[in-house]
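Lab meeting, item 3. Inverse folding demo.
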């Protein structure tokens, strides 16, 4: 048996092997030690002799629980099952690895978050180029594909290699396949996926095309929308299919298409923006509560919840599409009764997408079938309610929705109300569905009728009135005849036992019956398995129709959820325009609007773009509401492009091609990098990639460095955004000096957060008003925060002195940077400040030829030069 184990172990690579032995899964050697450690199982040993083998195990029915834990810890797990009945096996039971479970290939409800997709992604770079990050060419492309095995959604596209981190942040895979000879990107700290390296040949294009054509039953992929230039995406998709085949060892027939997801077809939101707008995770805890998703997801099914999350990864940029969704939401808003009815029916619906995936992969159980039946029961009602609606999207959904009546009727006729999880338990097929099953069951339950009937028959034919059929465990069924009637015994009675005044006989008929009874139970269960397989086959045959209907349900749920939210929170339908403007009256922050007590959130207007100016500078003290306000504008724009109503009294939203949001470095300390560097890299990226149709939110940019540095940078950035990028920009800053920019740049408008001063206190009104704030109120804020009074008093003195010094030195005026040279190129030169002469000396200092002491000495000299005191050669270094 250990040889069998060794073979299985050799076949499962680096996965942990769960080896089925009877009612247990056992682990040996290193695997046993590992799971003993991470799962807290008891480590025992096999062969207690000279070379004991470390061993651990758990009962088979706890598989899901242990799998979940192992996967969460980043392990891959091979499940090796007994593939023949131990009772029938000659010698050793045959065993096979039936599946390798990895984070990206889960299908069990118990292991999955019902509200989130579970993506397996693959990346394929152009092999003819350099593959190390340092060899990156500026516009190198990368093929990316991703599949949710638990639902069958399969997409891919070719993206710029630089945008890979953003794409992955958007998709949120749990496992990523890469070629072992390629390093597509540095892994972001925030990533939660496991990386699986595969040999290069698994990414071959020709093999990929063959696999994909075979999977979808097509001659070539152009019918699915794929083009010449998509080879890298197809190679990645092919690697995924090959990997699934290898690890799952089952049919994958629920994966019915590979959809092209092209860059530029949806609103692009990079990973930093996703994070800072808290779309799906909060910055503080990484949780879902308090995110935009948690607000806009008012769905009643898991499929609907996943649909909303999916929409958030691909917000729309085409006006017609946005309007179509808004029309549908509108219809749900204005017909409350209809909305309630649909939502009520959706509540009765199970997770059809995942049920279908389990059907296709052969992992469905009787209860899954029952769930499908119960889901189908809602279909006729839903189909009827979709008829005769106005919105074109609802009409489309109605036409895509397929009721699958025959299947529903068949399943309802076949399945009992309660169905077990384990098909071997039996008892889930209704009486009356299959005559043979009914007969077997009545046999198994003792077949009293047959016996009574047989007994009467024998009394009649033998003329022995006292003849009885009995049963004991030694002889099984017998006929008992009292000695008085011994002479009437027919020839076919075989004597088995003699009692004091009676004899017991058997007949071939009775033995045949007995055989039937004893095997009837086994047979009825076997027959149920067969019927189950037949029913499963019937569902399987409808996979495509059912998937379509599931997609309709999830979209209805998402749309009706948007409507529910709009009604409950008093949202308005946004007017969508292609003009780059945003005009909102009394807008609210969607999350705070929901979490703050009703009426406490102060609504605000926004006017940006065209004559309103394209760069709004928001100044005001800390805690006034600047960050909230600028995020609110981004979130409302995004919501509109999802096809949702927005929290406002009135809203006109110009479609954005990209939304950028960046937060000044000090808010991101936890990320552990040189945060100012990160801030500048990200800012540089915005300045280089934003278009006049983008929407940019900059929050305290420049705060990560010293005041004058930061202020100058912020200043230059605003100028560049205004002159060159010309995107709609909201710039929140506590550098109130920036308000001077309004004077020289026509597109810059100052706003500030209204503050009421009361004695020495400030009261934040959270109202955004025209004009710049002229001071920061930092000291007042510090006091409100509980900084001791003496510190505050001292700070006030210092401030007063600094202000006097400044006026003495520069006169009354605020900081006024030099005018730009009129014909200087409008290129931001972030890293081309005049260099300090010391830098050159640091560069040329030869580390290899100097001793540590010399190095220390040199650094001391540099430092003294910087600090302005003359070198003191005699002073000892310590
Ligand atoms: P700032 O960026 O100016 O420092 P924030 O936007 O972080 O200020 O807001 C600070 C706090 O003020 C928020 O946590 C919120 O509780 C409150 N706040 C902000 N805007 C509003 C508003 N419009 N209405 C009510 N409370 C608000
Ligand atoms: Mg702020």
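The presenter then showed the designed sequence:
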């Amino acid at each position: 048996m250990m040889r069998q184990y060794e073979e299985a172990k050799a076949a499962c690579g680096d996965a942990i092997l769960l080896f089925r032995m009877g009612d247990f899964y056992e682990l040996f050697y290193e695997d046993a030690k590992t799971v003993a450690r991470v799962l807290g199982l008891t480590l025992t040993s096999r062969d207690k002799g000279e070379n004991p083998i470390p061993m651990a195990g758990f009962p088979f029915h706890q598989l899901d629980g242990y799998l979940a834990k192992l996967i969460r810890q980043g392990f891959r797990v091979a499940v090796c099952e007994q593939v023949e009945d131990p009772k029938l096996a000659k010698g050793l039971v045959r065993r096979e690895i039936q599946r390798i479970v990895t984070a990206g290939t889960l299908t069990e409800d118990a292991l999955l978050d019902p509200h989130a997709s579970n993506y397996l992604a693959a990346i394929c770079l152009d092999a003819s180029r350099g593959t190390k990050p340092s060899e990156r060419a500026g516009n190198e492309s990368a093929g990316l594909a991703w599949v949710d095995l638990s639902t069958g959604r399969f997409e891919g596209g070719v993206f710029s290699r630089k945008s890979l981190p953003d794409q992955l942040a958007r998709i949120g895979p749990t496992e990523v396949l890469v070629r072992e000879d390629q390093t597509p990107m540095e892994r972001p700290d925030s990533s939660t996926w496991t990386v699986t390296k595969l040999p290069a040949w698994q990414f071959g294009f020709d093999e990929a095309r063959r696999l994909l054509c075979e999977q979808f039953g097509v001659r070539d992929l152009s019918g699915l929308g794929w083009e010449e230039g998509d080879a890298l995406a197809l190679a990645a998709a092919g690697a995924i299919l090959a990997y699934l085949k290898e690890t799952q060892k089952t049919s994958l027939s629920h994966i019915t298409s590979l959809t092209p997801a092209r860059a530029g077809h949806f609103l692009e939101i990079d990973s930093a923006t996703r994070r800072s707008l808290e779309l799906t995770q909060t910055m503080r805890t990484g949780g879902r509560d308090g995110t935009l998703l948690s607000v806009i997801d008012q769905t009643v099914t898991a499929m609907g919840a996943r649909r909303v999350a999916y929409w958030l990864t691909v917000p729309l940029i085409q006006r017609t599409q946005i309007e179509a969704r808004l029309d549908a939401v509108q219809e749900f808003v204005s017909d409350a009764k209809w909305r309630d009815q649909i939502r009520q029916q959706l509540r009765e619906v199970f997770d059809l997408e995942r049920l279908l995936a389990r059907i296709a992969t052969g992992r469905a159980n009787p209860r899954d079938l029952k769930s499908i039946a119960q889901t189908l029961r809602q279909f006729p009602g839903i189909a009827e309610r979709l008829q005769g609606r106005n919105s074109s999207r609802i009409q489309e959904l109605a036409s895509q929705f397929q009721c699958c009546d025959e299947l529903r009727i068949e399943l309802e006729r076949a399945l009992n109300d309660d169905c077990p999880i384990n098909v071997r338990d039996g008892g889930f097929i209704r009486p009356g569905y299959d005559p043979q099953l009914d007969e077997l069951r009545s046999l198994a339950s003792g077949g009293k009728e047959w016996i009574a009937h047989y007994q009467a028959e024998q009394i009649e034919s033998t003329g022995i009135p006292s003849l009885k059929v009995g049963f004991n465990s030694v002889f099984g069924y017998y006929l008992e005849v009292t000695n008085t009637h011994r002479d009437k015994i027919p020839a076919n009675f075989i004597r088995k036992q003699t009692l004091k005044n009676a004899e017991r006989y058997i007949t071939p008929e009775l033995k045949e019956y007995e055989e039937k009874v004893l095997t009837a139970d086994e047979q009825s269960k076997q027959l149920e398995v067969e019927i189950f397989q037949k029913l499963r086959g019937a569902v399987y045959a409808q996979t495509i129709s059912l998937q379509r209907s599931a997609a309709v349900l999830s979209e209805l749920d998402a749309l009706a959820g948007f409507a529910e939210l709009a009604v409950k929170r008093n949202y308005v339908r946004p007017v969508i325009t292609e003009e780059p403007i945003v005009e909102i009256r009394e807008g609210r922050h969607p999350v705070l609007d929901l979490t703050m007590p009703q009426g406490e959130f102060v609504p605000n207007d926004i006017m940006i773009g065209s004559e309103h100016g394209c760069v709004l500078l928001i100044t005001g003290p800390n805690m006034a509401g600047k960050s909230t306000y600028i995020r609110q504008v981004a979130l409302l724009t995004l919501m509109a492009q999802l096809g949702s109503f927005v929290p406002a009294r009135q809203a006109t939203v110009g479609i954005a091609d990209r939304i950028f949001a960046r937060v000044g470095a000090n808010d991101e300390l936890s990320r552990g990098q040189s945060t100012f560097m990160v801030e500048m890299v990200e800012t540089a990226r915005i300045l280089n990639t934003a278009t006049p149709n983008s929407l940019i939110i900059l929050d305290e940019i420049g705060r990560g460095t010293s005041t004058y540095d930061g202020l100058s940078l912020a200043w230059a950035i605003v100028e560049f955004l205004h002159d060159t990028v010309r995107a709609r920009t909201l710039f929140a800053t506590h550098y109130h000096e920036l308000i001077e920019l309004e004077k020289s740049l026509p597109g810059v408008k100052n706003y500030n957060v209204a503050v009421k001063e009361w004695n020495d206190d400030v009261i934040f009104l959270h109202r955004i008003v025209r004009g710049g704030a002229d001071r920061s109120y930092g000291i007042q804020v510090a006091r409100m925060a509980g900084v001791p009074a003496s510190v505050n008093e001292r700070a006030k003195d210092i401030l007063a002195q600094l202000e006097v010094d400044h006026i003495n030195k520069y006169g009354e005026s605020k900081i006024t940077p030099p005018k730009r040279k009129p014909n200087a190129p409008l290129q931001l030169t972030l890293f081309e400040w005049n260099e300090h002469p010391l830098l050159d000396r640091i560069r040329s200092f030869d580390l290899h030829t100097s001793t540590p002491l010399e190095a220390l000495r040199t650094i001391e000299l540099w430092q003294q030069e910087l600090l302005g005191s003359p070198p003191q050669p005699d002073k000892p270094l310590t």
